[in-house]
């Protein structure tokens, strides 16, 4: 089955393909589907933003679409950056900003989680939601060369997400957990 990912983010596309293609899905980006839009993410929750993105693409093509909205939620920062994760600071400076804001926070208060909500809009235009989380801590420095976004500062055990291989990360990540729920939905 062909599904459009309502995104052109190459890292998200790679992660989603690695998880869904082995079970028989052809995942294409919105640009590969000939769609050149940028939906305004003005929702107040991950679910609302995922729906906004999926619906914008579905309304053009009328075939199944998935979109995700995800972010880092840090307890000591009252859940920030949360739904504003992609806009929290200039690209390339997001980890630096979080580390600066966390510099005086003790280890026991550095708890954080990544949250991902996937909105799947089926052939009939009906939305379905799948949320995944992964819990960890914010480190004290950026480490690792894999991953993207906040991965270099998010500690999962004693490694950052950027120190894990793609296979390791895809087995435990917030997006992987949401995609597992989506996969279970398809297998019902």
Which descriptors apply to this entry?
alpha/beta, 7-stranded mixed beta sheet, Maf protein, 5 helices, 7 strands, 188 residues, globular
Strand content: 15-25%
Cα-to-Cα separation, first versus last residue: 15 Å
The main pleated sheet reads as:
7 strands, mixed
Global structural class: alpha/beta
CATH architectural type: Alpha-Beta Complex
Query: Averaging pLDDT over every residue, what do you get?
Result: 93
Description:
By secondary structure, the chain is an alpha/beta fold. The chain has one domain: Maf protein (Alpha-Beta Complex), CATH 3.90.950. It has 5 helices and 7 strands. It has helices spanning 10-20, 46-61, 94-101, 166-172, 174-187, and strands at 2-5, 26-29, 65-74, 111-121, 127-138, 154-156, 159-160. Strands 2-1-3-4-5-6-7 form a 7-stranded mixed β-sheet. A hairpin with a 5-residue loop joins strand 4 and strand 5 (127-138). It is globular and about 50 Å long.
Summary of the model, kept short:
The chain is α/β, with parallel strands linked by helices and 188 residues long.
